């Protein structure tokens, strides 16, 4: 899909809104960009993914999966699962199978259940002829949460077509993040059919468990140079983190944290301890990270080898420059939007942002 640049006015064509934001911003040290609004009036959007034909799939947390086709027409897809739209619950992430061009499979994460007993679930279906076919739930976190909060629900396909899924601690179940018997506060790994692909149990049988000790992880990205996997998660009051994750590692929550409880009380007196992986980066105070992408494209050369992280609280995106696997610089971008950034995506060279509100927007970042 291409966005046509216009004077500072709105054009409606085939249902696609193309609004050019006239402000041009010079990003340190040299990059200059413009922001094009590709779609507006999205109700609490959570995630966007791009289709091979230049259309998009967009989740709306209330329980809608939107197909924005290459002509700009919008369709609410039928055949999607019921969801719990309460608290932080609803529809979350949507990703394409690595062999989507052949099998047409999409994966949707969502809140399943009722307020007193709910959890993160994954739905798989074929996207054909403008609709969903042969849909079924392939994963439901085995623990029931008693709160509609902290779902995690971010997904990432690996090169072997296995799928990583983050799960939150349920807010009131934080001690479960340290339990290997619980799937709360974890990264899970499954094969594309839903079968477990994580660590092995004592009998040598695969679990879904892959890493543990997480609070509410909502960002996953692969470093296109090194293959490292980055995860970010919300801390409590302070202590948001980026971690470089590897199978079997424990990332500490709630035994170690750089944050405190919302009341100001200690969650833990320890920021580090033996047996727990130290974060790659922390934020105190919190930025409320949501969405993350690694950039290695050619449109913005000085942004190569950077992580882009949405900052809900500060209504901006943080760009973290990586060098030899470490963060060496942080830059705030896109503050002129004045909007909470729910998702950040890189599709080939292009950067897309999704703003978080009942009148959310899909925005493309383009060179000046």
From TrEMBL:
Top-rank taxon: Bacteria
Parts forming coiled coils: none
InterPro entries, sorted: 6-blade_b-propeller_TolB-like, Glc/Sorbosone_DH, Quinoprot_gluc/sorb_DH_b-prop
Occurrences of domain Glucose/Sorbosone dehydrogenase (ranges): 43-364
This protein's name: Glucose/sorbosone dehydrogenase
Provenance organism: Congregibacter litoralis KT71
């Amino acid at each position: 899909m291409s966005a046509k640049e216009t004077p500072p006015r709105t054009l409606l064509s085939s249902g696609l809104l193309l609004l050019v934001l006239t402000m041009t911003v010079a990003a340190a040290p040299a990059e200059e960009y413009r922001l094009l609004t590709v779609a507006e009036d999205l109700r609490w959007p959570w995630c966007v993914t791009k289709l091979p034909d230049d259309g998009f799939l967009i989740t709306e947390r209330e329980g809608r999966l939107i197909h924005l086709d290459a002509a700009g027409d919008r369709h609410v897809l039928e055949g999607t699962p019921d969801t719990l739209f309460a608290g932080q619950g609803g529809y979350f992430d949507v990703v394409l199978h690595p062999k989507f061009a052949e099998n047409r499979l999409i994966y949707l994460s969502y809140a399943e259940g009722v307020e007193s007993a709910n959890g993160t679930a994954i739905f798989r279906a074929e996207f054909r002829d403008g609709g969903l076919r042969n849909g079924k739930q392939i994963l439901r976190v085995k623990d029931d949460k008693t709160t509609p909060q902290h779902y995690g629900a971010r997904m990432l396909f690996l090169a072997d077509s296995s799928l990583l899924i983050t799960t939150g601690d349920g807010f009131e179940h934080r001690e479960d993040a340290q339990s290997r018997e619980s799937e709360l506060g974890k990264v899970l790994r499954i094969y594309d059919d839903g079968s477990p692909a994580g660590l092995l149990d004592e009998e040598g049988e695969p679990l879904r468990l892959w890493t543990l000790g997480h609070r509410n992880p909502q960002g996953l990205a692969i470093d296109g140079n090194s293959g490292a996997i980055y995860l970010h998660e919300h801390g409590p009051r302070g202590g948001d983190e980026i971690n470089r994750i590897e199978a079997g590692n424990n990332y500490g929550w709630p035994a170690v944290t750089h944050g405190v409880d919302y009341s100001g009380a200690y969650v833990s007196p320890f920021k580090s301890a033996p047996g727990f992986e130290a974060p790659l980066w922390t934020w105190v105070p919190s930025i409320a990270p949501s969405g993350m992408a690694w950039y290695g494209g050619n449109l913005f050369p000085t942004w190569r080898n950077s992580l882009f992280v949405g900052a809900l609280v500060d209504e901006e995106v943080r760009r973290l420059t990586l060098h030899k696997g470490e963060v060496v610089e942080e830059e705030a971008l896109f503050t002129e939007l004045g909007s909470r950034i729910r998702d950040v995506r890189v599709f080939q060279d292009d950067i897309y942002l999704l703003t978080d509100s009942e009148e959310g927007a899909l925005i493309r970042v383009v060179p000046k």
